[in-house]
Amino acid sequence: MKDKLVIGIIPGIELYKNDDPYEDKYFIVNNYAKRVFASNAIPIGLLLNDGKLSLEQLSLCDAFIIPGGIKIDPSIYQLLEYAKDNNKPVLGVCMGMQAMSIYSVLNDKGVKPTIQDEYRVAYDEMKNNKPVLHRLDNNEKHFHIVTRDNIDFARHEVIIDNNSLLNQLYEGNIVNGVSLHGVVVQYVGSLLNVVGHTDDGIIEAVENKDLLWIGVQYHPEIDDNDILINNFIKEIERRKNI
Question: Cβ distance 39 to 233 under 8 Å?
């Protein structure tokens, strides 16, 4: 048995429109790897091959982190399908939580993530006349542009359900999270439960206890005092008896 967990981190992607393959950029935000190293696990970046992840890459990992970003790439849904089929934990942050929520809706509809057009249906899919994702307009409570000097300006309280796994990991039901999102999740599929929200009703956390899937709309990787990534990894170790 290996001594340390391997945590796969999917990169953010900047795609350019001039069809120059040398212009595409894949990047890993350093704070995610920093938090994983601090939790005595090994982070690896999951770079794409022609827009896809390989099974060889994914099989190296004990769990996955889907970071925040500005574009939900189809490879994220490939990762979630693999994680579900192979019982591997996932932590999704901001856009990562949004992707998990969309995937849970597609899963209910029996849509397999194989082509990009299938992912787009989640944006148009309606439930009670609401799309899965909704863009906030000029909402100062949730969307901020921050620097190292004004992180506290971007905080707001997230209320965590008492009986949730997330509550156990935090050992409490109030998180003062750093909020940087301009898009919110309005509902999820049966694969996930909503377990966190703000006082104005915005969904801020989802989870599946059995799969050890956690999605949060705020950014624990930014906050030196946040314990989520560390306790997420400890919970994986506990379940694997490492």
Answer: yes
